[in-house]
Amino acid sequence: MSAALDTDTHIASSIRTDAPPAILLDRVNKWYGSMHVLRDVSLQVATGERVVVCGPSGSGKSTMIRCINRLEQHQEGRIVVDGHELADDVRALDAIRREVGMVFQSFNLFPHLTILENCTLAPIWVRRMPKREAEELAMHYLTRVKIPDQALKYPGQLSGGQQQRVAIARALCMKPKIMLFDEPTSALDPEMIKEVLDTMVGLAEDGMTMICVTHEMGFARQVADRVVFMDRGEVVEQGAPEQLFSNPSTERLKTFLSQIL
Ligand code: ADP
Ligand code: MG
């Protein structure tokens, strides 16, 4: 968990070619009313693969992520997560919620619960884990994100970076197979961004399958097996970070990169 972001080295790939894809989107379409927000989005994420998604505001990144764990519903196309087809089958939905961890831009911690209680809530009530065991697990992950000493405090007593690390620890307590991050550092002050990215690098080093929506291109360079560029509801380009950043093939990506780099 001590990886530094200021190195140029890309961490070793953990893609598992012997396992079925962790996530499959096949020509997914979604509308909000008459607004077409996902247009024939196809994306396959291998087990152990790390995908960074970038693109202008309003391009459909959050909507795509939210469709993957069914916080939103798509109207056309297929989404398969860890072998579960996302349809109206409630059991499949339960499985997906258990297997997919999500971290949002706003940390979404429960303000009236301690850090420890935030982390043990779902394991106790969803996984039916005994309280003691859930607390041990929570302390394990709070130690991993380097804030075991904050366990008995309330979210409001922690910095933004610490709260986001709690959100990551809380997601990990459900032992997810896949982690989805939606701009986890964009609400943070600059000095706190690195501590959160370091935590995410550590997860990547452990071989976690991840989709991260982020504009932290240093993180993408170090961690991503693949970068996906979205614009106006479409996947416009994708490829290895170096290739995509140094050699964009569309004007849309060139324009986007010139604005963020
Ligand atoms: P991004 O995450 O790339 O900024 P979003 O997925 O949040 O983009 O949004 C894509 C488009 O869908 C935007 O035009 C946005 O205004 C619209 N949108 C997002 N959520 C909703 C919603 N709940 N209801 C209606 N429109 C929405
Ligand atoms: Mg978004």
From TrEMBL:
Pfam families, sorted: ABC_tran (PF00005)
Its EC top class is hydrolase
Q: What is its EC number?
A: 3.6.3.-
The keyword Transport belongs to this UniProt entry's keyword annotation: yes
Molecular-function annotations in GO: ABC-type amino acid transporter activity; ATP binding; ATP hydrolysis activity
The record's section on InterPro entries has: AAA+_ATPase (IPR003593), ABC_ATPase_HisP-typ (IPR030679), ABC_transporter-like_ATP-bd (IPR003439), ABC_transporter-like_CS (IPR017871), MetN_ABC_transporter-like (IPR050086), P-loop_NTPase (IPR027417)
UniProt entry tagged with the keyword Nucleotide-binding: yes
What UniProt keywords are attached to this protein's entry? ATP-binding, Hydrolase, Nucleotide-binding, Transport
Question: Where does the ABC transporter domain start and stop, copy by copy?
Answer: 23-257
**PANTHER family listed in its UniProt record:** AMINO ACID IMPORT ATP-BINDING PROTEIN, PHOSPHONATES IMPORT ATP-BINDING PROTEIN PHNC
Q: Which family does it belong to?
A: Belongs to the ABC transporter superfamily.
Q: What is this protein called?
A: General L-amino acid transport system ATP-binding protein
Q: Which organism is it from?
A: Muricoccus pecuniae
